[in-house]
Amino acid sequence: MAQDGGLTMVLLRIWLWLMPLGMLAVAVAFAVVAALDERWALLAVMVLIGATAIGLLALHWWALYGFGKKA
Questions:
Q1: 27, 20 contact by CB (below 8 A)
Q2: Contacts of 27 (CB under 8 A, 6+ apart)
Q3: CA–CA separation, 56 vs 49, rounded Å?
Q4: Which of 18, 34, 38, 71 could form a disulfide with 43 if both were Cys (CB 3.0 to 4.6 A apart)?
């Protein structure tokens, strides 16, 4: 079983933070390119992916800090 301060927990926390933040950064970058190129369908898809990244970040926040708290 993984300990709270163990290496696997540190790696898991890094993964759970970097994955949605990287996804959001890439979506914003491609959205800017799509807007400058006037490709509105691609811009809409990038906005959807960005919203998914924000939702995933909120889910990971809840999973990391919401679990295990006593009422």
A1: no
A2: 46, 47, 49, 50, 53
A3: 10
A4: 34
Spatial distance between the Cα atoms of 35 and 47, rounded to a whole number of angstroms? 11
The reply to whether the predicted model has a pTM over 0.85 is no
Give me the DSSP letters along 2-34: --TTSHHHHHHHHHHHHHHHHHHHHHHHHHHHH
8 by Cβ neighbours in 10 Å (0-12 / 13-18 / 19+) ranks as: exposed
What gap in Å lies between CA 51 and CA 46, rounded to an integer? Answer: 9
Q: Which amino acid is at 53?
A: A
Q: What is the pLDDT of residue 2?
A: 52
Could you give the percent of the chain with pLDDT greater than 70? 89
